[in-house]
Amino acid sequence: MKAIGTSSGIAIGKVLVYKEPELIIELKQIDDIDFEIKRLDKAIKKGIEEVQDLYDETLENVGEEEAQIFNAHKMMLEDPEFIDGIKSKIKEKKVNVEWAVKEVSNQFIELFENIEDEYLRARALDLKDVSKRLLRELLGIKSTDLRTLKEKCILVAEDLTPSDTAQMNKDMVIGFVTELGGKTSHTSIMARTLEIPAVAGVKDITQITSNEDMMIIDGSEGLILLNPSEHEIKVYENKKSEYERFNKKIQQMKGEKSISKDGVKIEIVANIGTPKDVDSVIQKDGEGVGLYRTEFLYMDSDNMPTEDEQFEAYKIVAERLKGKPVIIRTLDVGGDKDIPYLNLPEEMNPFLGYRAIRLCLDRTDIFKIQLRALLRASAFGNIKIMFPMISNIKEIRDAKRILEEAKNELRNENISFNEDIEIGIMVEIPAVAIHSDIFAKEVDFFSIGTNDLIQYTVAVDRGNQDISYLYSQYHPAVLKLIKMTIENGHKQGIWVGMCGEAAGDEKLIPLLLGMGLDEFSMSPSSVLKARWIIKNTSKKEIEPMLDKILSLPTAEDVEKFIDENIIG
Amino acid sequence: MFKEEIILTNETGLHARPASLFVKKASKFSSEIIVTKNGKEYNAKSIMGILSMGAAKGDTISIEAEGNDEEEAIKALINLVKNNFKE
To answer: What is the pTM of this model?
Structure first.
């Protein structure tokens, strides 16, 4: 079976189909009330033990805050109103305990759900959980508890929620196969974080397989083999050890310098969205942060983050990276990223509209607050400021003028900051790439944002599935713009980086090295592999191929040329 | 029997974390404890009861206890509310 590989690697093992068991509750008239009540007491006792275990485990493995939910579950299982309600239902109506549990739970759930209140709605969910736990206990249905997996398995599910993966025993799950999802779904991201293979988009797989089936998954190829033959298992065991050997080599890249085979030193840094992401930057040995997307600070909040809140976030990233470069991009919203409290107008063409620096230069009140926070944080590490969506020289000058105002304010307030803070722009609009020799005179660095640069160059909305075949980082015109930007930057004596997906693309890395790119910024998980590629590539060997590559007619030709002449 | 009235002054009212602190405190006593709001009675030891009461900032509730430790119970619960649930 072929589907979408969302996390690379190979897993061979037993299937575990993860499905919520169906709870069928029948109404029964009973005579022995005491018997039913004893069953209830027993189920409650067992339930309390279970949630206590969950609490302890979560506290140890995840954290206090996440564990609290099980404390709330415990309180519900001990709740006199709830328990007495069930008991009186059994006594008065002479019904079976299952039916009473269901009825009383539903009453409370309905009550909570009908109150316009987010907190109570969440409690309704908790109560549903608690009620299901009791019913499973009473019906003798075993739910697959992902926490207590005892055997290594490949988890097969419709999809996994963040709470599923949070509670899962991570040592026992060797791969994911899901019916839903794609590269960016939660399950896929989780798989890449855990470094286990995953395949998504496999239709009906929870119907087709059952527990104890053997399965091979190849996350690099998006392949699944159900109940493979001995021969197939042997083939994949070899592939697996090959992959692991390669992976080991990549892990050895930790602590190494990013220097090409012919001695060219470059920088491999990481993209982050929140201060928490710094964990993985450090773990994957990123040489800094090439793109800190500050919009999440604004998007994850109901109101404008204050100067102090922003300062704290920027400061902590700068401090944790201990003098390594941290490039912070100023607010980049609009387009596909909305912030409700800004009340942005709806547009016909949001990607060509009021967004990023355009918004900031209009709403200088918002912009100034961010710049002040950035400057204040610059006293605590190596922060550089980057402006997104620049299309025009005047925008750079205006932005720098406002930055100067912010600096003056801080000087007057005797607040320290880095006087020589570096200023750069994203090169993501073709006009800037074409005119980059002139733009380079205005700034300290360029960072090529390939995601937008491609979409604006080939006029393809990158979110539109129907035309996605036209969107390619191998398009020769895009590559020409990249090369031109790098050369023009160097002519003016500034360094040039890249922070789009392309910077972490194993096929493009050699090409970009050949073009002279100074800094590659990518998701933390790609850093070590990129370093390995750089160490095994010689810039001098790539350079003479560039003219040939850039003169190829199509993106497919470029990709093929790379496959045949550079990779492998 | 002990009884006292109090106005909720904390931001969240008898809700979320405060509600759970209230129930936990009440559960430490053996007395029967009832909270009344707008003439309706709720069991102080039941998180579901307290939550469904929906008491917000500015609401007046009365707490009533009956049993061996009724006096301490009322004192402790009134103190908890007075201190805005900061212990």
So the answer is: 0.65
